[in-house]
Each structure stands twice: as C-alpha cells, then as structure tokens.
Design a protein that fits this description.
625 residues; alpha+beta; 3 domains; six-stranded antiparallel β-barrel; 37 strands; 17% helix; 41% strand; elongated
C-alpha cells in the first residue's frame, strides 16, 4: 500500500513539475543598478495578484530605492493601488523578470493617494530556504524615511493566543463558509500570482463539517523542481515546520479605511506541505510526503457520561503546536456545549498519548471551574478551560519538548462535563491510635465530606508496616510519661495530604524515587512521568512516618564505589568521566532517620475532587505491647 501511494505522489509531482514554465529572475544587484541609473531614480514595475475569482490582475508600482541594513535588504516602492491582506507574496516584475515578493506595507491613506510598500528580493527567499539560515533577530517591522513598515496581513481576524505574535491575524472558516472543491475534481496547476491558503489547524466533527484556521497569501515563485515560495515575510517564524496548503478562489476584496482584505471562496483539497517558515517567507513542495508529520488529535465530548460530539483535529507541526492545539480545543468548546466560565461545573478529562516505540501515557483527572476575586472584580474560568489548559501545559508539552526525541503518533482525549459545583472533599473526621504497638499494623478510620454533605464517604484500613525497618521501643503502652527518658521515646506521624501537599512535602529519599533530578533514559523518564500523573486531584495520600531501626542508615548510605565506577577515565581537571551516562540511580539517604509507609486507598468516586489544601498531621508514639 505504501508503494502505491509513493507511485501516485511521484506521478502527480511529475505532472505538476512539467506544467511549470521557466521564470527568469532578476537579482537585487541588477534592480539596484536600474534604480541608480534611471531618471529621478525611479523604475516602473508591477505585481500580480487575484482580486476576485481566479483571474490574475496586474498592479503598477514605482520602485523608489533599496533599504539596506545588516543582513536585511528590501526594495521600496510606491503605488496608487490599495495593499490588502492576502497580497503577501504577490510576485513583482520588471520587464517580466521576477524581482521578488510584495511583503511589507505602510498605510498612509489618510495623508496621500499613494501607498508605500516593500518587496522581498527573490534571491534572498531562495538562498534562505536552501541554506536554512535564519536572521539573528526576526525582522517583522522596519523604518524607512520616517515610516514604520509591517508585514502585509495574511488574515483579518484576531485569533486568541496568536494576536500577540507581532499582531498576526488569521482566517477562521467553517461550515457553509468552507466550500471545498471535490477530491474528484481536476487538481489545479499552480503558478506565480495564485492565492495560497496555509492551514494551521483543521478539524472535522461527526457530521463531516470542516473548520479551518488558516492564512491567505499569494504564490511568489515555483522553481523547476516544483518548490513553492510565498509570503515574502515570516508567517510564524518557526523555521522547520509542516503546514498543509491549498489554493482557493477569491470571493471578493473588502476595502476600508482601517483594514482591507481578500475573502476566500471555494478552496481546493490539500495540495502539499510548507516545510520552512523564516525571515524571508515560507517555502515547501507539492507533495503529500511531509503531511504525515501533522499532529493529530481525537477529541470526544460527553455530558454526564452521555456522548455529545466527536472531532478529528490536525495541527501544524512547529514549536507552536501546543498553543495551536489548545486554541483548537478552546474554539471547539465555545461552539459545542462546553461549560461557560460563569457556570459551576466539573470536567473529567481522560487522555491517552501514543508514543512511537514506548507504552502510552495515560491521564485521568477531575477539574472544577474556578472563581478568583480581586477586590471588587471576579475572574471566572470554566472547568473545561482548566482541564485542557492543564493537559497541554503539564502533559502534552512536556512530552513534545522532552530531550529524548519522543515522537507522538496520536492523541485521544475524552472530556465529560458534570454540571453544578464540584463536590470538594475534606476530612470530616478520622481515628488513629496515639500509641501504636510495635509489630502490630495500626488501623486508620477516615471520614471525607463535601460542603453540602450530599454523599460522605468513609474508609477503614490497616496500614501495612515493615517492622524490621522500624526502631524497636523499650517502653510499653502502660509506661507513665514521667518514667520515660526523652531520647528513648520512639515517635511517628500520620500524614493525610492532597496531591499538592504531597509533592510539596516530599522527603529527600522520596524525591530521588518519585521526582529525581536526572533520568537514566527515555524509559526511566516516562516511568517517572507516568507515576506523577497517577497522583491526580482525585488522589488522597496517607503515609505513616516512623523512626528507622538503628544501623539501617549505615546500610543504605551509598559507598564510594556505588557513586564512582572503577573503570572510568579521568580528565585533565581530575574529574572522572562516565561515558554513556548512568545505568542505575545513585541514592544517598544519610540525612534521614525515618522510614515511610503508604496506605493504598481506593480511587475517589467520579465527580468528587480532593481539596488541594487538605493536610492533616498527627503524632503518635511507638510502644511495646
């Protein structure tokens, strides 16, 4: 099956490449020579773009000079034509020779009938795409003759979380607004001057309705190998990326005093992938090969356990993938029945992240809605936003950005919306002996209640103790306190803690086991990460801390040979170099004089959340029977 797909891709590529006509290019040096040698240092030129439908229109401009800064050169022009969003990348010509992409604009409509703009030289676009070179400082704005120039917009709508990226605006189209050309239709032959629609996010619901978050620009140049260049300025500036792209009809162009832009009509099926996004524009190929690197998510909505909707989501592959994916989750929630911020609710999130070559990472957690007061003001956050915010920041991003080269293949997320305030459990009462007989496992009785006293839960359980690790006392339960020598008293403590308190109060030995400062490899990292996720906000930790048996510390202290292998080399500074890293964890507990035992409690019932500030500590004495 794989061989058939590759064969089809090659056939299509050859068909496409054969349709590309040779385009003569003009270097920046030749453009500069023409400007310098022309009367009044002005050169007539033109650019091509689509104003409506699919037919390209010619727009006249006048070249007025070249901005030169270290590592950055732009050809400056004026025109009586209005520069609108979607013109980014429009090819600019002198005598039918391509000189570059229309990329920057200055809207001085209030002062003059002339518009200023900037052209990105085509040789800069090609050289950067071939070399992978990036400017030390990403240039999105520059000044020329007292005017501030910015990239021509690629959309007309602020998208939550992305408008802060140098004012980037995008297009969000869905439902009837997305008029796809059927896959059975003849594939369009692309050429310079045609619209290009670059997808960042795409999702389809269970009815097949498609929503796309995308940018629109113009194709600048297609070389003889079928490589496409567009925009002429950075999109997201993420360098090595995978964005799917299409072409489209232009429904029309909206002109206004503040913001002018093109409207897309019918869009084609995906034609290929943009694989580079940097200072001088974007580039890619008409080929399906790279599209397998798009990030895929399956999202399921439930209400009190009953299925509501299912969504299949594709997200661009870049350093901004977590931000883009979280936006998709947020936008889907806004329009498909997720709890609103002011609504008291609980969201139960279950997720599975499949990793190539490793076992999946699983998360199951409850998230209540939040209400935070700042003086007279109150800020609300829906339980759904809290849930997917935690998932992307604390789980997905950690795996995606780990140093072990983990590759995420698929992500499955199911969210169950539970209306009403969360049933937050707190300790109502508990019973534990103040004198624990050595050799006899103590019994804990605990009662948990919520504020409304709807469904209190209780548990009676024995704490399993390895008494060989606990110091044996000399006093019995009948010994009067006044008869005891203080230094001979064997004490212990019982700790009942929420997840938050548990991680805050880890002993050094626990940190080395549960949250180590280093990992022995990808397997070790994933094992510790999975254990951390198991400590969800549904979890209640009960641990008993007791004085360790005399001599036990000496047995557990790491020796010099445990830390330093005998076959390692020594560098010039006298340090021993351990090639290949460690194969086992090195632990030293010589600063602790106690041992810890846990009570394994059953999972808290669905719909309940443990109070994250929950912490109860009692102290007891260990005595002989």
């Amino acid at each position: 099956m794989r061989k058939i797909r590759i064969t089809l891709a090659v056939i299509f590529f050859l068909t496409f490449a054969g349709a590309v006509s040779a385009q003569e290019l003009m270097s920046l040096e030749d453009v500069e020579h023409l400007i310098e040698s022309s009367p009044n240092k002005e050169v007539k030129a033109y650019f091509k773009s689509v104003e409506r439908g699919t037919k390209q229109k010619r727009y006249d401009i006048i070249l007025r000079g070249i901005l030169k800064e270290p590592g950055f050169k732009v050809i400056m022009f004026v025109t009586t034509e209005k520069i609108v969003a979607g013109m980014s990348g429009s090819p600019v010509y002198i005598n039918d020779k391509l000189i570059g992409a229309m990329a920057y604009g200055f809207n001085n409509l209030a002062f003059s009938d002339w518009w200023w703009g900037g052209v990105q030289p085509i040789n800069s676009m090609i050289e950067q795409a071939e070399s992978g070179r990036q400017l030390l400082t990403e240039r999105r704005t520059f000044s020329f003759e007292g005017m501030l120039f910015e990239p021509i917009p690629v959309g007309y709508r602020n998208v939550l979380g992305l408008e802060s990226l140098a004012g980037i605006k995008l297009m969000v189209t869905s439902g009837s607004d997305v008029q796809r050309v059927s896959t059975g239709a003849k594939k369009p032959v692309l050429e310079s001057g045609m619209p290009i629609v670059v997808d960042l996010i795409e999702w389809t619901d269970e009815r097949g309705e498609l929503t796309i978050v995308s940018a629109m620009g113009t194709i600048t140049y297609i070389d003889k190998h079928g490589k496409i260049y567009a925009f002429g300025h950075p999109f997201l500036g993420s360098r090595n990326v995978v964005y799917s792209f299409r072409t489209a009809e232009v429904m029309g162009t909206v002109y206004s005093q503040g913001s002018s832009y093109k409207l897309t009509g019918k869009i084609s099926e995906i034609l290929g992938a943009i694989t580079y996004d940097a200072s001088y524009g974007i580039s890619g190929f008409v080929s399906p090969d790279e599209l397998t690197r798009l990030n895929r998510f399956s999202l399921e909505f439930k209400s009190e356990g009953k299925p509501l909707h299912r969504f299949e989501i594709k997200v661009a592959n870049s350093i901004l993938t977590p931000l883009l994916a979280q936006f998709a989750f947020s936008k889907i929630g806004e329009t498909n029945g997720a709890p609103i911020p002011q609504e008291a609710s609980v969201t139960q999130l279950e997720a599975r992240i499949d990793l190539e070559g490793y076992r999946p990472i699983v998360l199951k957690e409850l998230f209540p809605s939040r209400e935070v007061k700042f003086g007279p003001s109150t800020t609300y956050t829906s339980s759904y936003d809290v849930a997917h915010g935690y998932f992307f920041s604390e789980v997905y991003r950690v795996l995606l950005e780990s140093k072990y080269g983990l590759r995420i293949s698929d992500v499955f997320v199911s969210v169950n919306f539970i209306p009403g305030p969360s049933q937050t459990l707190r300790v109502g009462n508990y019973k534990f002996p103040n004198k624990v007989a050595w050799g006899q496992d103590p019994i804990l009785e605990i009662l948990l209640v919520d504020q409304n006293n709807l469904k209190p839960i209780a548990k009676k359980a024995s704490v399993k103790i390895d008494w060989d690790k606990v110091e044996k006392p000399v006093y019995t339960k009948n010994t009067i306190d006044t008869e005891k020598a203080y230094e001979k008293i064997i004490r212990g403590s019982l700790n009942i803690e929420s997840t938050t308190r548990f991680f805050q109060n880890l002993a050094n030995s626990e940190k080395q086991k549960i949250m180590p400062r280093y990992f022995l490899g990808a397997e070790d990292f994933l094992d510790k990460f999975s254990r951390t996720l198991e400590a969800t906000n549904q979890k209640l930790f009960v641990k008993v801390v007791m004085k360790s048996r005399s001599g036990l510390l000496n047995e557990e202290i790491a020796s010099a040979t445990d830390i330093l292998p005998g076959n390692v080399s020594e560098d010039n500074a006298g340090w021993h170099v351990i090639d290949g890293g460690l194969t086992e964890r090195k632990a030293t507990v010589n600063n602790e004089s106690f041992v810890i035992f846990y009570l394994d409690l059953p999972q808290i019932p669905n719909g309940y959340v443990i109070d994250q500030n929950l912490q109860e500590i009692i102290f007891f004495e260990i005595v002989l029977k």
